[in-house]
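Hi everyone,

Forwarding the result from last night's run.
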Amino acid sequence: MTVHRNCYGVTDNRITGKWTCDMCTNDKNPQVSTQYKCVLCPVDVREHDFVGPPKTVSTHKKKMEKEKERERIEREQAQKTADYYRKKQEETHRPVNPREPLKRTFDNNWVHVTCAVWTPEIKFGKAKALGPAEGISSIPRGRYGEVCHVCNTQTGACVSCHLCKASG
C-alpha cells in the first residue's frame, strides 16, 4: 500500500522505507481482527490494472492493424506480469491486491480512512495518527439501510448532503 504520510496518519519519524501499515503490523502480532474489511462500506478489494487504456486511435488502416497488434501484445504481457505477481504474492503469503488504506476501530474492526473522515459520527482517538476510529455504534441504523447513489448498493452506512437531503 502506498500512501501519503499525512493521509494515513503516519506519525513516527522512522525512515520512509521502513514504515509498516497497520494491517501488516497486525499480521505480525494480531491484536485485532485479521478480517481486513471496512465496516462502513461494501468495498472489499480494488482490482489493479497492469496496463492502461489505448493511447491514440489512428485512421490509417495499416497503422490501425499494427496498433491493434501492439496493444494485444501489451495486454498479453500485462496478463503474464499480473499472473507472475499474483503467484509470487501467494507464495510469500502476502495480499494479492494492494491493501486498502484501513485503520483500526475502537471495537477492533477496520474502517477506510476516507469512510471514517466522511462519516460525521466517527472521531479518532489520536487525531494525527488517525486511529483508533471511534463512534461506529453511534451511527443511526437507518443509514445502513439507505441505497448509495454511487455504487447502488444497500451495504454500509451512507452519508447525505445536508441541503439535498433536506430538500429532497
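Strands lie at 102-104, 110-112, 123-126, 131-134.

Cheers,
N.
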